[in-house]
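QUALITY CONTROL LOG
STEP: pairwise intake check
CHECKER ROLE: data steward
CRITERIA: each record must contain a sequence immediately followed by its structure tokens, with no blank fields

ENTRY 1 OF 2
RESULT FIELD BELOW
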Amino acid sequence: MKRIGLVSLLIVALSGCQTSPDQQTQAVSVPAMECRFAHGQADTVSIMRKSINVLEEEGFTLRSTDSALGVISAWRERPLNKQDDRIDERGFFSGLSVFGGIGSGGSSRFGLGIGTQLGGDRRANALQIEDVSLVVDDMAVQITRDVRIIDSQGRLRDAYNASNTAFCAPLQQALMP
């Protein structure tokens, strides 16, 4: 009987360890039609050079290129507003810390410490990091763009595919002869 009670208690305790994710899984967005287009040129190297120039004009830093494969990889980052609640969800007392302890023995002691952040918020801004890849083959150009939001403490807050018309259409127009 004692064993059944102990096993039951163990099952109840372990079932409490199950957790569900904070956010439900989201469907991956399909890249816009403007993110894949025919370039109509025989020389893929000239398209790649033009693509590199366009990306650098948009503020991207070239990460790598491979002309044999027709791949260009670039990235850019920009700081986001500190006051954006989606990124920084600090509470009212987030800068306050209270700690103390009680000890006993030959004598009794009690200590309490209260600390708070003085002098304003000196943390870095959250960052939006964009990764862009272009694949140029004999017929077409394929553009993919991924965005990551990193909070001020270096944690990944959001990541999504941003291969949309607003980004790809101007690139397509700049690359077409």
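ENTRY 2 OF 2
RESULT FIELD BELOW
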Amino acid sequence: MIAALDNNVPQLSADLLLVVLIVVNAIVGWRTRTLRRVVSLVGLYVGFLAAYYMGNGVAAVFRKGDIYANAWAFVAIVVVVVILFEVLGRVFEDRLKSVAVIAFDRVAATFLGAAVGLFQALVLFTVALAVGAAHPGPGNTVPESRDVAANAIHGAALSGRAVGAVPVVRAAVAPLTTTDLTTHLEDGTQVSLHF
């Protein structure tokens, strides 16, 4: 394990992101209980779908045809929707508490919180891997350096192992999305060569 420690800043950043999201969500799960973590997990799923269908349009307002703008708009929409669901969970906390079974609630919420953190990291990693898989060419604005984050994630000690679960994220959203994420983020990056 020591030999596999991250040896550059992008790899270390990917692993730190993974660990922070898992630990923070596990702690939040312990403090807020199971049903609030379920609400957060639903929020993450809804956020992914909202970002898939709205992200490129939002990005076009700021930087049309830029894959990085598409990716950042995607992440921003996911974050906003997750925060919205967290607030809704807080607002309806009393109603949620009356439904929960207290005996296993904290332990289950801790594990569910860690799972939410893992899935949050996997959504971010999925976006980075999708950008990294984009194909630069003369007909689009995809930069050659697009795969730096994806390579860092694959090369990182923890994140490199965690991305093995990315197909689960893809399978979970596949029934509701029309294309793979790489193709979706590439939409709008084509440059018209006709004058």
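INTAKE CHECK: passed for both entries
DESCRIPTIVE NOTE, ENTRY 2: The CA atoms of residues 89 and 170 lie 26 Å apart.
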